[in-house]
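Tokens as discussed.
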């Protein structure tokens, strides 16, 4: 399993897409699935890789983080 952890260490909110190369840890990434922060949500958002990059949408306050599983 592969995961992508995004942490906002800035003092400003982080909103919008964050782009990564679609090759992560030496293997191609086809999609990223958000892992919900609470157990009341079954599945998170799905982001597909396009044109050699993987873009995940975030809306993080300072000190917040998001976790995605990479497939």
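Sequence:
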């Amino acid at each position: 399993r592969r995961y992508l952890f995004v942490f906002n260490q800035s003092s400003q909110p982080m909103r919008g897409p964050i782009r990564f190369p679609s090759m992560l840890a030496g293997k191609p990434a086809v999609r990223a699935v958000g892992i919900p922060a609470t157990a009341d949500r079954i599945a998170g958002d799905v982001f597909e890789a396009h044109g050699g990059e993987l873009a995940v949408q975030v809306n993080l306050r300072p000190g917040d983080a998001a976790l995605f599983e990479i497939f």
